[in-house]
Design brief:
single chain, alpha+beta, Jelly Rolls, 2 domains, 6-stranded antiparallel beta sheet, 5-stranded antiparallel beta sheet, 2 helices, 11 strands, 39% strand, globular
Length: 207
C-alpha cells in the first residue's frame, strides 16, 4: 500500500510540474521590447494610408520607458486587430492582462477565439476595454475575467481589436494560465506526502 501511495504521489508531482506555472505568460513578445511586432499578426482590412498597427520605440509617451505597440484607425469604418496564436489545452483556466492608453472617438476590446486541432473555430470570448469620447484615458491597467477553454480546444487566438476613429496604445500584454485551486490542492498534497515519505525513509535508514 505504501508503495502505491508513493507512486501516486510521484505522479501527482509530475503532473504539477507539467502544469503551466501560475502567472506564466503564454505569449511571446507581449511587452514589445523587441521594438517590433515579432510573434504577433496584424489584420487591417482597409489597408489604407489612414490605418496601421506598429511597434514604437520608448519615448515620452511610453508606459514604462520601453517599446510599445500603436494601433490607429482614422476612418468611420476602420477596424484593426493585433493578434497572437498560442497552444492551449481544453479546460485550461486563464486570464488576459495588459496596459493600454486611448485618445479617440472609437473603441477597443479584447477577444479570444478558440480553435480545435484542425483550426476550426469552436467558440469565443470578448470584453470591452473602452469606448472613446475624445478624452485621453492615460495609461490604464486591465485584467479580464478568468476564462476556461472549452472542450476540444487546441489553440487560442488573442485579439486586440480597435475600430473607428481610434488611437490605442498597448504594453505588457499577458495571457496567464490559472490552475484550478482543486487541482493545485491535489497535486500539492501529493508533493507534501512524497516529502514526508522521504523523511520517514531517511530516519529509518539512519536508525
Amino acid at each position: 500500500m505504501k508503495r502505491i501511495l508513493s507512486i501516486s504521489a510521484a505522479l501527482a508531482v509530475l503532473g504539477l510540474a507539467a502544469l503551466p506555472a501560475p502567472g506564466a505568460n503564454l505569449l511571446s513578445n507581449g511587452d514589445f521590447n523587441t521594438g517590433d511586432l515579432t510573434s504577433w499578426w496584424i489584420y487591417v482590412p482597409e489597408a489604407t494610408s489612414n490605418q496601421n498597427i506598429s511597434a514604437l520605440p520608448a519615448d515620452g509617451f511610453s508606459y514604462d520607458s520601453s517599446p510599445y505597440s500603436y494601433s490607429w484607425n482614422h476612418g468611420a469604418s476602420a477596424t484593426g486587430i493585433l493578434g497572437q496564436d498560442v497552444d492551449m489545452a481544453a479546460g485550461t483556466q486563464y486570464s488576459v492582462s495588459l496596459e493600454y492608453r486611448a485618445n479617440n472617438w472609437g473603441g477597443g476590446g479584447v477577444g479570444i477565439w478558440y480553435w480545435d486541432s484542425t483550426w476550426t473555430q469552436i467558440g469565443w470570448e470578448w470584453t470591452s476595454l473602452y469606448t472613446g469620447n475624445g478624452t485621453d484615458t492615460g495609461w490604464q491597467a486591465f485584467t479580464s475575467p478568468t476564462w476556461t477553454a472549452p472542450a476540444n480546444t487546441a489553440h487560442v487566438s488573442l485579439r486586440l481589436d480597435t475600430w473607428s476613429w481610434s488611437d490605442t496604445y498597448y504594453d505588457n500584454v499577458s495571457l496567464d494560465a490559472v490552475p484550478e485551486p482543486s487541482t493545485l490542492a491535489l497535486l500539492s498534497g501529493g508533493l507534501i506526502f512524497l516529502m514526508a515519505q522521504g523523511r520517514r525513509n531517511a530516519r529509518k535508514r539512519a536508525a
